[in-house]
């Protein structure tokens, strides 16, 4: 039991540090808190879903930008998709980068799109490592149950 | 031989000498600068010049030449010139004479020579030894140069002499020849003499001065005529009295006798004549030449513009004796010039217009950008803030001790305050950038006033009397943007309270005749409302049962209040007669004036003009003492003006201020059994319509100092009365006896809290020490919502939780009970109230917030249409936490299928989705509800999955809530236009979701 408390604290500390770093905003904690009502597996399921989702979207965006003629409509949809997911989970930095991407898409600037997608990927990788830690902790907590 | 030679010589002379020494015409070219001879003369001859055009008064001309400076100098010049020519001629003649005499001498010399030669020959013939020894060389030389020719001639001549030399024959022949030569010489002499005579006579003929002069004059005249023959020029001379003495006009329209001796004024009449006359007189007086352009408008030659040059003419003694006048017709030029000016002006105007247009375009672009920025702003700022608040919200869900809960309360209310501030700024910029749209909704002014006052009273920390006085003629229900009106009222009231240390603050409402600014205002207003009117009806779509319970709740409260302040409200039951009359004129506009008065510190006169400006406060001292950003009044004013009204203020320092705004409202008929009460009147009581709806006077008064006290620093209770510090008691106006505010109430916090949590996090702080029932804290949530999102539902929230406990069959009883309690003000009420939270508190603490155990109400079926997995997961779990389970589909097509297969009570619809977006899906669903078939969906390519499970006559309207990422009202309108009932902006928070659900599942 003491282990679990320690793990919980560790997890919360990790989340706090992520918040301090600006990687995530308060929504992340809120989403985390949702597990209380939705069973212990909620968060442990949500994070991988989010990560694979974001990874796929980023890959698709990269592919779309590699085309000789960029399909901005597709880009817009992908951008909205990733922004929806990230702002929902509270991945603040990625959501911000998505804002930049959106502007670049609006301006039909391939160059800026590429930069923005790079930024998104960068932010995602930063977040991803932290998410892994969180996920591991969460799994440990679950296993303690 | 000699004779030939002589003739040659003379002929040479004739040719060479005369032309070079005899200039054809002296002076004429100098005078007129014209090549006179040859072509020029011919040209003149070709041109026929009618001479009668010059009209000359010869006598006058003579006078002129005699008396004027110019004339005399001209004469003198002519004379001088003539003299010069004369002397020249004399000189030439003399030269000629010299020439002739020289020739004569020469010829005589020759003659002598010839004679001598012959004598020599004779002498030589006589004696050859002529003493010329010394001269030999000379004679040789002579022979070398001159006689060579002669030799040849002589030799040839000599050949003619056939006779033998020195014979008689020879001499005879020789003599004959010489005689002949002499004869020829004599003849030549004669000819020369004749020529000389001729020249002399010629000379005499030419040299007549008058002839010369007149010829020159004539030439000048001809030249002038030639030059001026087609020029639009008039020349003239006028004497001292400005009578014409001379005029030259190529196109005369008057005869000589009509002009000479008359002045301009006597000749013409019409515009410009007088001016030219005056101008000439001016020149005459000043003695200086001048030019002027004068437009004539005369009968004689119509409208013409002349450029007139007038110069004075002086006599020898220097006095002006008249003017020379020269006029040139420049009508065409003037016309062209005017046209040019006009064109230039037009171009300038066009350019100005263009710049204006560009500016407008620029402004439009700016506005668009501002709009864009607003959308971003509202989203970017609100999202993190909502994050903070929802964080706190979640935190309040956890187990906390009292202190933590209080801190949390501060946190939440501070967050709300920031949110309010941001909303204020956004509102202001929205109004300014023209993005602000007004909504038109039915509402009851009395309710609004009451709620505003209740809200104010709830957070009151001063001994202030709050009163509301609504005139009888104010309609019960009117249509307007109730949120904005509340905003204005709340703002003004909170201002009034802030600046009023003691006395009273109140709102007065009464109908006024249409004010003078009404027309423009009305136009503006109708425009502003236009877009919103459609949406209104749908907003009012609410289940009946909820209304009833709300109304009950309200009814109870009303009574409670009534008994709290027993002094007033003594006539709550009198219905107002005009209520019915209002039914008849449905769309009438009524102008209602609202005075918000206080007995506060007042506003100095010099601060009045800047009062409504942004970020302006009366003085820096005030800002320090009372706080605030100075935005409130600016927003109020902008809002009032947006709605087509006027906001004014009158104030007296130390006596108080009155803020007055007059607004137009549409009057709506009162529905006796309203199925769709608007979002405010849903608190109104249908059971006791007669009391509440028409009650015109409310008063809220702090009962005791103790109960005034606020337990901690909530957002709206920053200043505490010093003597009440230390009490942790309810700060509300309530019906508790003095003892009830102390410790027991604090104990109850725990029990109350869960209820509060479930209802509205924002009110936690304020309800901490508040043990009483839902209705007495209802002003609080009202305030919260008004301030933050403008959505009301807390009251409903309350009833949502309240309802299960007091179900339809029993609620009247419960009401009565409550009335009883509030009436009697006895501890019994506390017990009752305590009991209630107990009951309710169980619900939120369990994973399902709903209380199905106590009530057999079926769970509402909710459909979530959302494509984003993460969003789905989060929304689903949030709903679960709120006690709802939901079905999820991923796009519009699936949503339509889902609706075809099942009946849903609510749909949460994402707007942007692949395959089919939320707007279209909504349209299809609405079309089904309207027509009862899925034809529209079939047309859109969706096959009906299964026959609708609902009965054929069951086409109830499913509430559809849009979920959009755009926070601007624009997209809200789009949602409404497509048949959606309301919208939640993303990312969805607990608060928003809850509000929304509460609206539909009370």
TrEMBL record, chain A:
Name this polypeptide is given: Histidine-containing phosphotransfer protein 2
Q: Lineage of the native species?
A: Eukaryota, Viridiplantae, Streptophyta, Embryophyta, Tracheophyta
From TrEMBL, chain B:
Give the Response regulatory domain ranges: 861-1001
Q: Which residues form a coiled coil?
A: 90-117
Give residue numbers for the modification (4-aspartylphosphate): 910
Report biased composition (Basic and acidic residues) as residue ranges: 553-571
User: Where are the residues of the annotated region Disordered?
Assistant: 522-581, 765-859
Enzyme superclass (EC): transferase
Top-rank taxon, per record: Eukaryota
Catalyses:
ATP + protein L-histidine = ADP + protein N-phospho-L-histidine
Q: One GO biological process from the UniProt record?
A: phosphorelay signal transduction system
Keywords, A to Z, come to: Coiled coil, Cytoplasm, Kinase, Phosphoprotein, Transferase
PROSITE patterns (UniProt xref):
HIS_KIN, RESPONSE_REGULATORY
The protein's location, in the record's own words, is:
Cytoplasm
| Cellular component terms per the entry's GO annotation | cytoplasm; plasma membrane
Biased segments, Polar residues type: 795-827
Enzyme Commission no: 2.7.13.3
What's one GO MF term for it? phosphorelay sensor kinase activity
Q: PANTHER family annotated for this entry?
A: HISTIDINE KINASE 5, TWO-COMPONENT HISTIDINE PROTEIN KINASE
The protein here is known as histidine kinase
Which species expresses this protein natively? Citrus sinensis
Q: Lineage from the top down?
A: Eukaryota, Viridiplantae, Streptophyta, Embryophyta, Tracheophyta
């Amino acid at each position: 039991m003491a282990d679990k408390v320690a793990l919980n604290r560790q997890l919360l500390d990790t989340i706090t540090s992520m918040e301090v770093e600006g990687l995530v905003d308060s929504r992340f904690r809120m989403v985390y808190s949702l597990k209380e009502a939705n069973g212990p597996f909620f968060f442990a399921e949500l994070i991988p879903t989010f990560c694979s989702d974001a990874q796929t979207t980023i890959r698709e965006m990269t592919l779309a930008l590699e085309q000789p003629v960029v399909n901005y409509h597709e880009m817009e949809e992908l951008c909205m998709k990733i922004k929806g997911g990230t702002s929902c989970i509270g991945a603040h930095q990625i959501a911000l980068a998505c804002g930049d991407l959106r502007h670049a898409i609006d301006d039909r600037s391939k160059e800026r799109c590429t930069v923005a997608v790079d930024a998104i990927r960068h932010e995602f990788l930063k977040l991803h490592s932290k998410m892994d830690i969180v996920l591991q902790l969460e799994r440990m907590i679950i296993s303690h149950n | 031989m000699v004779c030939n030679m002589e003739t040659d010589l003379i002929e040479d002379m004739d040719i060479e000498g005369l032309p070079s020494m005899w200039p054809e015409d002296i002076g004429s070219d100098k005078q007129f600068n014209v090549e006179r001879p040859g072509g020029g003369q011919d040209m003149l001859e070709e041109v026929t010049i009618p001479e009668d055009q010059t009209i000359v008064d010869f006598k006058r001309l003579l006078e002129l030449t005699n008396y004027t400076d110019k004339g005399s100098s001209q004469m003198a010049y002519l004379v001088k010139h003539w003299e010069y020519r004369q002397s020249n001629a004399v000189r030439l003649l003399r030269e000629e004479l010299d020439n002739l005499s020289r020739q004569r001498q020469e010829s005589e010399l020759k003659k002598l020579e010839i004679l001598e030669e012959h004598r020599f020959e004779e002498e030589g013939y006589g004696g050859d030894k002529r003493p010329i020894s010394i001269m030999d060389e000379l004679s040789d030389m002579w022979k070398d140069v001159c006689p060579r020719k002669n030799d040849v001639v002589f030799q040839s001549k000599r050949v003619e002499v056939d006779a033998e030399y020195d014979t008689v024959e020879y001499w005879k022949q020789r003599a004959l020849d010489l005689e002949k030569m002499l004869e020829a010489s004599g003849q030549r002499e004669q000819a020369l003499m004749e020529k000389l005579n001729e020249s002399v006579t010629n000379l005499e003929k030419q040299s007549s001065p008058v002839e010369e002069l007149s010829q020159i004059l004539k030439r000048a005249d001809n030249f002038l005529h030639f030059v001026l023959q087609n020029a639009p020029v008039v020349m003239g001379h006028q004497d001292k009295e400005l009578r014409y003495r001379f005029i030259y006009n190529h196109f005369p329209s008057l005869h000589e006798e009509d002009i000479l001796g008359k002045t301009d004024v006597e000749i013409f009449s019409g515009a410009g004549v007088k001016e030219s006359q005056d101008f000439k007189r001016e020149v005459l007086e000043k003695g200086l030449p001048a030019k002027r352009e004068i437009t004539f408008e005369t009968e004689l030659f119509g409208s013409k513009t002349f450029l007139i040059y007038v110069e004075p003419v002086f006599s020898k003694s220097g006095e002006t004796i008249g003017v020379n006048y020269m006029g040139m017709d420049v009508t065409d030029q003037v016309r062209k010039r005017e046209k040019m000016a006009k064109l230039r002006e037009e171009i300038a105007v066009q350019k100005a217009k263009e710049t204006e247009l560009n500016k407008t375009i620029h402004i439009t672009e700016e506005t668009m950008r501002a709009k864009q920025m607003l959308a971003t702003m509202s989203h970017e700022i609100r999202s993190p803030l909502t994050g903070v608040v929802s964080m706190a919200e979640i935190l309040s869900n956890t187990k906390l001790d009292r202190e933590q809960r209080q801190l949390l309360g501060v946190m939440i209310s501070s967050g709300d305050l920031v949110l309010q501030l941001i909303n204020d700024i956004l509102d202001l910029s929205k109004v300014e950038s023209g993005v602000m749209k007004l909504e038109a909704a039915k509402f009851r002014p009395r309710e609004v006033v009451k709620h505003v006052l209740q809200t104010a009273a709830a957070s009151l920390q001063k001994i202030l009397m709050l009163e509301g006085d609504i005139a009888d003629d104010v309609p019960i229900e009117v249509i307007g943007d109730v949120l904005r009106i509340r905003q204005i009222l709340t703002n003004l009231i909170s201002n009034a309270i802030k600046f009023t240390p003691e006395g009273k603050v109140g709102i007065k409402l009464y109908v006024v005749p249409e004010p003078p600014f009404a027309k423009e205002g009305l136009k503006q207003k109708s425009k502003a409302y236009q877009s919103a009117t459609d949406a209104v009806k749908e907003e009012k779509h609410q289940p009946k049962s909820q209304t009833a319970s709300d109304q009950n709740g309200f009814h109870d409260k009303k009574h409670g209040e009534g008994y709290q302040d027993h002094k007033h409200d003594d006539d709550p039951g009198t219905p107002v007669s005009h209520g019915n009359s209002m039914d008849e004129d449905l769309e009438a506009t009524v102008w209602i004036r609202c005075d918000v008065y206080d007995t506060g510190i007042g506003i100095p006169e010099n601060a009045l003009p800047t009062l409504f400006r942004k970020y302006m406060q009366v003085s820096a001292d005030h800002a320090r003492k009372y706080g605030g950003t100075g935005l409130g009044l600016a927003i109020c004013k902008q809002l009032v003006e947006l709605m087509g009204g006027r906001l004014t203020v009158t104030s007296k320092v130390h006596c108080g201020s009155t803020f007055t705004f007059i607004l137009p409202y549409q009057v709506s008929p009162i529905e006796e059994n309203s199925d769709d009460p608007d979002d405010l009147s849903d608190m109104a009581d249908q059971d006791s319509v007669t009391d509440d709806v028409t009650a015109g006077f409310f008063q809220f008064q702090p009962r005791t100092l103790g109960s005034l006290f606020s337990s901690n620093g909530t957002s709206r209770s920053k200043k505490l009365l010093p003597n009440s510090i230390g009490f942790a008691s309810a700060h509300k106006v309530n019906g508790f006896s003095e003892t009830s505010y102390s410790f027991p109430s604090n104990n109850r916090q725990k029990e109350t809290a869960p209820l509060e949590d479930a209802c509205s996090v924002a009110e936690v702080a304020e309800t901490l020490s508040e043990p009483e029932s839902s209705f007495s804290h209802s002003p609080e949530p009202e305030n919260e919502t008004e301030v933050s999102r403008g959505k009301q539902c807390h009251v409903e929230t309350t009833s949502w939780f309240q309802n299960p406990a007091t179900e339809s069959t029993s609620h009247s009883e419960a009401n009565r009970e409550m009335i009883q309690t509030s009436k009697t003000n006895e501890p019994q009420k506390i017990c009752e109230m305590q009991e209630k939270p107990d009951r309710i508190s169980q619900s939120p603490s369990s994973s399902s917030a709903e209380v199905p155990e106590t009530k057999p109400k079926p769970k509402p079926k909710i459909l979530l249409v959302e494509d984003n997995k993460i969003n789905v997961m989060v929304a689903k779990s949030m709903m679960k936490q709120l006690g709802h389970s939901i079905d999820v589909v991923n796009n519009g097509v699936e949503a339509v299928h889902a609706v075809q297969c099942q009946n849903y009570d609510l749909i949460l619809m994402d707007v942007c989705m692949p395959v089919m977006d939320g707007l279209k899906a909504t349209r299809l669903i609405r079309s089904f509800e309207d027509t009862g078939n899925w034809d529209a969906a079939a047309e859109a390519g969706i096959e009906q999955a299964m026959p609708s499970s609902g009965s054929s006559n069951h086409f109830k309207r499913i509430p559809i809530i849009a979920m959009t990422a755009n926070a601007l009202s624009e997209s809200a309108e789009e949602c409404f236009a497509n048949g959606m009932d309301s919208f939640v902006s993303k990312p969805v928070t607990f608060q928003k979701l809850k509000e929304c659900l509460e609206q539909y599942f009370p």
